[in-house]
Design a protein that fits this description.
The protein is of the alpha+beta class. It has 6 helices and 21 strands. Helix 2 packs antiparallel against helix 4.
Length: about 290
């Protein structure tokens, strides 16, 4: 603690992290940093020791924290890091801590189409950038023009989205960089049609996913077999894994690609459940899941 850079915010040692994830499991952060604003985070990056790790959590979906916790410094980007601004030329500037739903609603209010699919993603823009989040046939990078980052020295840089290596559920940034914001280029649309599309997506999500229980979100990536992309939920279901349980972790009965916490689950339960499901799929269908 004595060696950490001074910040305007606060440091808390041995801070619980489970509630920062949608699955509600995991150990503590060695140190949790609550930064006051972007300049505070920038100062931390500029002044921290080179070997001090920083893990950033957003909305905490698609995140599993080990039971032993996380060494180094962990922070959460939420309020104060979540500005969304509709700008000229049909663009939207969205900070990393903004939820995908907030950005989708801002686009709808402005009559801009393209990001309605964000209504079905319970994550933040930072997470969406990191994993090129997508659903219903669209992905984050489909509409990106710029990515704003804090580099390892805490300096804001603007990167053309076309220059960032990315693909299905991944993107790459220079080492030590932190996502700060995204700029999306959209097109004008009909507000009523956009609203109806978002409503339909929310209904489909409610009908097909285990909403209301602690969940991992989609656990496996959709596999590609012989050049054809398959649905991970169907592969898992066809292997007879729906409802499989280890401790408090379960493959959801409602959606076979969602792992849920039925109560008291540990990260070890989820890891072992995943191992068993992967082994069963490999044995029965010769498909390696990720």
């Amino acid at each position: 603690m004595k060696n950490l850079p001074k910040i305007k915010g606060t440091y808390t040692p041995n801070h619980p992290l489970a509630d920062f994830t949608t699955v509600k499991v995991g150990g503590n952060a060695e140190v949790f940093a609550a930064f006051a604003d972007w300049s505070d985070l920038s100062s931390f990056l500029r002044n921290k020791e080179a070997d001090l790790s920083l893990l950033i959590l957003g909305a905490g979906s698609n995140a599993l924290i080990a039971d032993v916790g996380i060494k180094g410094v962990v922070t959460h980007l939420g309020r104060g890091f979540d500005a969304v601004d509709v700008r000229k030329n049909n663009t939207i500037y969205a900070e990393a801590g903004a939820t995908c739903g907030k950005v989708a609603r801002a686009a709808r209010t402005a009559g801009l189409k393209g990001l309605a699919f964000y209504a079905g993603i319970p994550g933040s823009i930072g997470g969406a950038l990191k994993m090129n989040a997508g659903c219903y046939g669209s992905e984050t990078f489909d509409f990106l023009t710029e990515i704003h980052v804090l580099n390892a020295s805490g300096v804001t840089q603007i990167i053309n989205a076309k220059d960032v290596p990315h693909g299905y559920r991944y993107s790459e940034l220079p080492a030590g960089s932190v996502f700060k914001a995204a700029v999306f280029k959209l097109t004008l649309g009909d507000k009523a049609e956009i609203k109806e599309e978002m409503k339909k997506i929310n209904h489909e999500r409610t009908d097909s996913q285990p909403i209301g229980v602690p969940s991992s979100g989609s656990w496996f990536r959709n596999p590609t077999v012989d050049g054809k992309k398959l649905s991970a939920w169907k592969v898992t279901d066809d292997a007879g894994c729906r409802g499989m349980t280890v401790g408090g972790a379960q493959v959801s009965e409602k959606h076979a690609n969602f792992f849920i916490n039925t109560g008291g689950a540990t990260a070890a339960d989820f890891i072992e459940l995943s191992r068993q499901v992967e082994a069963k799929i490999l044995a029965e269908q010769d498909i390696k899941m990720h």
